[in-house]
């Protein structure tokens, strides 16, 4: 695993410490890695939505119903 040195603002460092102190995570490194994984997952969702919007904008109209679009979106968000 790559080793990095990063600096945090005081409020962010306190929040990280609290998460570790509350036994939510065993270390700041574990917490930061989890936050990065969450951000990467969110980026996948954002990219999917962006692609759908671009496709819709370029095609004009969709034949999918509101319910179908909502179901697809919920399925993606829920994994």
Describe the structure.
By secondary structure, this protein is mostly helical. It has helices at residues 10-21, 28-59, 66-77. It has a domain at 41-79. 71% of the residues lie in helices and 0% in strands. The longest helix is centred in the middle third of the chain and has 32 residues, at 28-59.
Key terms for this structure?
79 residues; mainly alpha; 3 helices; 0% strand; elongated
What amount of the residues lies in strands? under 5%
Total helical elements: 3
Helix content: over 70%
Indicate the structural class: mainly alpha
How far apart lie the N and C ends?
27 Å
Based on Cα principal axes, name the global outline: elongated
Please compute the radius of gyration using only Cα atoms: 19 Å
Count of DSSP strands: 0
- The overall pLDDT, averaged over residues, is 92
H/E element string? HHH
């Amino acid at each position: 695993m790559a080793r990095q040195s990063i600096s945090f603002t005081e409020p962010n460092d306190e929040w990280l410490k609290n998460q570790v102190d509350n036994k939510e995570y065993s270390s700041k490194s574990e917490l930061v890695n989890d936050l990065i994984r969450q951000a990467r997952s969110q980026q996948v969702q954002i990219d999917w939505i962006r692609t759908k919007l671009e496709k819709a904008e370029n095609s004009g109209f969709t034949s999918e119903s509101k319910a179908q679009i909502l179901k697809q979106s919920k399925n993606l968000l829920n994994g």
